[in-house]
Fold this protein.
Amino acid sequence: MIRPAIGDQRAGEVMPLSSGRPRHAWRAWLLTETPGSRAQARLGQAYVAWLGFRRNPLAMAGLTILVVLVLVAVLAPVLTHQSPVSQELGRRLQPPSAAYWFGTDELGRDIYTRILYGSRITLLIVGLVVVSVAPVGLLIGTVAGYMGGAVDVVLMRMTDVFLAFPRLILALAFVSALGPGIENAVIAIACTAWPPYARVARAETLTIRNSDFIAAVRLQGAGPLRIVLGHVVPLCTSSLIVRVGYDMAGIILTAAGLGFLGLGAQPPSPEWGAMISSGRKFLLDQWWVATIPGAAILVVSLGFNLLGDGIRDVLDPKQG
Amino acid sequence: MEAAPRSEPAPLLRVEDLWVRFPGRMGVVEAVRGVGFTVGREKLGIVGESGSGKTVTGRAILRLVLPPGLVTARRLVFDGQDLLALNEAAMRGIRGRRISMVMQDPKFSLNPVMTVGSQVAEAYRMHADASLEEARRRTLEMLAAVKIRDPERVYRLYPHEVSGGMGQRVMIAMMLIPGPDLLIADEPTSALDVTVQMQVLAILDDLVTQQGMGLVFVSHDLNLVASFCDRILVMYAGRIVETCRASELQQARHPYTRGLLQSLPRVDRPVAELPVLQRDPAWQDAVMTFP
């Protein structure tokens, strides 16, 4: 078998992947039509999904932003030697310069440093909210969808009550009841973020509950708990992951909103929303104090949105 | 109403005057209308055309008719227990453990995101207090018992990776593993080729004759039922129109049964044109009694 030298002369069935370019061995291994093992087939599937994801430039931009965000959060002490909280009133409200890349704020703190450390708070809030919200919404939605009847009515009307309020307003109400602080902000955002998850999980459950395999486990004597946790929940997770990807930007904005209103992270901590709030007073003369954290919020929430879109295109079971 | 066969002193299941109704927008659909029969430790065949109420009868015995379906019966007694009077928790103890049902379509009866083996093992662990290792061992044994070659490999497969016939045998394994006293098999062999069909029937036959399991075998294959079962019920439009011993099927008297028999092609007596079953509306309502 002589490999053709010119790219568009295909070698046919023998080398289905060969074009003119040389291929890496691992790539051929991943893309083979006849995988030798289950693990190989699964890795190949993941690789194909990744190829689809990579073809979407916006999703890649989102992914890049997120990777940078995570790196910044992890490497903050390496990227700057300043402290995000130590004040130095002699250098307050300096414009951006070579020494202070993003300028300094009204207490002489380096805004660049504060942005870096603020990314940790943002990631912390998003992570905690997602981890606490997804299981709650999943459980409420699947139980409501599976049990039907009165249970469904009660749970879904409760969900409707939560959905009836604008998210930030409801979160404000919760925080003002619980008291300001990052932990309480997380709890408040979690309380307002679960209803859409419950809705998605319920809709999925309604289509699953009447399928034959659920009837089959029922006629083996399985109880509702076993059916919901063991057979319904695993089938709902992929739609839920897609939904989580969508929601992250909203969570960031709500967290920043709470910070801005003084109900989220408290003053010394470099939370982006709180930074905008304190920089607001100098907006006309020292624009950078409020604008830089605002731009950070914009870029990060845009990144989450783009990534969410990309994940949906790759993962959404409804699109085949 | 059919009388219990004289040879059966204490039937496993006694059904009298069973009705299943589905209230719909256009009125009530009566899927099963006053059916009565008994099952002992024997092979009972139920035959009938599509929509004659065979499957719904099976589901009604397990109280698994989906709402808004309504099940009523004068008596529905299994092993001394009135199934209609049991609460849901007690009923779950009956399902699978005492009465099991093999459903028609294996492709839709297995959870697509769980491996075949874990589903069979779950069926076992649901009723037996067994360790994971023990359940796995029993599952492999059961898969081998339903003539699945290389059970170790099949154990790890997902439902979309097994063939239709394999799926049906997995279903049978799943329903047999808790060791039920009564198995309702809803066309359990329709997706299997003839040789495997015979093997599966042999497994079921063994269970009935050796372990004294009762079997309700729902099918539309008259010849198969006649050769495999002990007794046959013929259903039409939600009623049992005829009951007979399998060996006496050829002497059946009801015009519907006769019509069914005549519309079967026969190797030894080829005809140019098979007769088409002529339905008589009177069959639907008349309760047929034979002296």
